[in-house]
């Protein structure tokens, strides 16, 4: 039987008038369960508002993107958000020497999160909690205008002139101002205590901006044996798959990457493998993994993923199951070809942003339920609940090609 999803009847978080960093959009949250209080969930949400103090003459105001913190004590039904200040904010440096940050081991490195910190995902890897976020070196203007009619591109409005003179991957990434996914170590106790300045440790980039714009990036919680070596395994979604194996004729697709060290993912040392490309009507434009995988059995994982058809049809969420191999990358064994989640409620429909969008960025197990947090209409936050066992059983009815059995 098809599982029944329940949804918050109204948004659990919305933009805050008068809050300079969250007045326009509050969306795409990550959530994690408190290890000591089962009913308590913690959230990091993406937020933005116009930033006129950095506006350049003749340009739209910049829209830097921040992460805010919220907590729920009733398994996600209601949330208390801290809009007094961001939990994690871009530095918004302008000069070249301002684009450095101290990383988790005390080195001065390039700060790929200088302009925007978007779409957080929280996940454990071998007992350590991490946060990944799609970041930009410089904030864009009102970025949603690129999907308007006519489209207006504001991504380059706040890229400094000095970036045109440098050579090498960093300067190329500066000039294109694409998203680079950055990894942070997350101290949940300090986040809960709202000691935000101590809660995040910059680890470094997981993707290479000069290779492709890349987001929807996170790791499996455990290493896997691949080619005779225990390796970390990462999901990612390059905008230009042609730069990766078997991607020449594909739209944005779901890839795996394997590396012996986390720091090797953003380097030629990582090995990449195509996991899934768009094949159904509702995936015509792109697909990408939605939130970090959840273990089903000893060697199986549930991967939530999204597909986009076009700017008018919008985003659909569905699910697939991957199976670990003896000494190789995991492979898809079941793929639900049906539209399982999409914008339906009035408050989930777009206003300023033209594309219908229900975009899940978090899924955790709380009791018998899978609790998912999502961004709606690229402006608000919602929650959804579904029975975990029923969902997994339903996805198993489909084969690897999305054909339903029986």
From TrEMBL:
GO terms for molecular function: glycosyltransferase activity. Keywords: Glycosyltransferase, Transferase. InterPro entries: Glyco_hydro_beta-prop_sf (IPR023296), Mannoside_phosphorylase (IPR007184). Coiled coil: none annotated. Belongs to the glycosyl hydrolase 130 family. This is Glycosidase PH1107-related protein. It comes from Paenibacillus mucilaginosus (strain KNP414).
């Amino acid at each position: 039987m098809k599982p029944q999803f329940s949804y918050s009847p109204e948004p659990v978080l919305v933009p805050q008038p008068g809050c300079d960093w969250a007045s326009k959009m509050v969306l795409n949250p990550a959530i994690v369960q408190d290890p000591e209080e089962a009913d308590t969930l913690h959230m990091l949400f993406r937020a933005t508002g116009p930033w006129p103090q950095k506006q350049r003459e003749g340009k739209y105001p910049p829209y830097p993107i921040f992460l805010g913190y919220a907590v729920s004590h009733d398994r996600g039904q209601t949330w208390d958000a801290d809009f007094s200040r961001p939990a994690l904010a871009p530095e918004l440096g302008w000069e070249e020497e301002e684009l450095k940050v101290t990383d988790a081991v005390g080195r001065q490195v390039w700060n790929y999160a200088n302009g925007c910190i978007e779409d957080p995902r929280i996940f454990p890897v071998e007992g350590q909690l991490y946060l990944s976020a799609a970041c930009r070196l410089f904030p864009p203007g009102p970025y949603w205008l690129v999907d308007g009619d006519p489209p207006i591109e504001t991504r380059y409005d706040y890229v400094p002139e000095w970036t045109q003179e440098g050579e090498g991957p960093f300067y190329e990434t500066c000039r294109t101002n694409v998203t680079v996914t950055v990894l942070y170590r997350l101290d949940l106790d300090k986040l809960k205590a709202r000691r935000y300045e101590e809660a995040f440790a910059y680890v470094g980039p997981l993707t290479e901006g000069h290779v492709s714009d890349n987001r929807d990036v996170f790791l499996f919680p455990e290493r896997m044996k691949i080619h005779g070596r225990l390796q970390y395994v990462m999901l990612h979604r390059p905008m230009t798959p042609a730069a990766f194996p078997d991607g020449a004729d594909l739209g944005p697709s779901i890839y795996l990457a394997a590396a012996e060290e986390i720091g090797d993912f953003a380097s030629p040392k990582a090995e990449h493998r195509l996991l899934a490309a768009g094949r159904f009507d509702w995936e015509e434009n792109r697909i990408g993994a939605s939130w970090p995988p959840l273990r089903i059995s000893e060697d199986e994982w549930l991967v939530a993923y999204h597909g986009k058809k076009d700017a008018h049809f919008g985003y659909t969420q569905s699910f697939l199951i991957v199976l670990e191999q003896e000494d190789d990358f995991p492979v898809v064994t079941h793929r639900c070809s049906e539209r399982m989640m999409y914008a339906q409620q009035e408050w989930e429909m777009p206003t300023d942003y033209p594309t219908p969008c229900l975009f899940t960025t978090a899924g955790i197990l709380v009791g018998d339920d899978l609790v998912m947090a999502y961004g709606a209409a690229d402006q608000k936050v919602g929650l959804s609940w579904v029975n975990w066992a029923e969902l997994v059983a339903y996805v198993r009815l489909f084969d690897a090609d999305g054909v339903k059995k029986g």
